[in-house]
């Protein structure tokens, strides 16, 4: 019996490892952290030198972006819920204007045993038309992260589930300069949980 139990434990361990690596796109923790770190390094370079940098008028003001340490707890598997009767959403912006987006669908996911639901919006009417994103606020907003919320780009292939990786959450450009116009998150995207992942306040 003891030998059979040991074999069973080993089999379960292998299966859990396969499931985790599958969810993490086949990457190990080390490979994932390396990829995320490289993404952040390249973004710093873009902000220091790029023509589309929010600091392009004065690169000397850029002192480097700050982030939470990578945390796979905030890379979540979310259930996609389609919206049959999609409507245009008008969101207020940081410069007291309004910007319109198309409802795309909802995502439901779990963090620390609690379920959350967010609205995905689709960009319409500009160069980024068709791209999907989440604008959200959370328990870190106006404390460790930008008070008007952060963004997360979303990819969806039409399947029932998708991945939300909050380690890639980023500040809108209005976090760096009043010259930019950024939409605020819709009310249903204001979370109570602290998403301690992704980009922090710029100082």
List keywords for this structure.
single chain; 203 residues; alpha+beta; 2 domains; seven-stranded antiparallel sheet; 2 helices; 7 strands; 26% strand; disordered N terminus
Question: How is this structure best summarized?
Answer:
With 203 residues, the protein is of the alpha+beta class. It has helices at residues 2-23, 29-49; strands at 75-82, 88-92, 98-111, 114-123, 132-136, 150-154, 161-165.
How far from one another are the termini?
A: 61 Å
Into how many domains do the coordinates divide?
A: 2
What is the number of strand segments? Answer: 7
Q: Which structural class should the secondary elements be placed in?
A: alpha+beta
Unreliable spans: 1-23
Treating each run of at least 4 consecutive H or I residues as one helix, how many helices?
2
Backbone CA Rg = 19 Å
Sheet with the most strands? Answer: 7 strands, antiparallel
> Percent range for helical residues?
10-25%
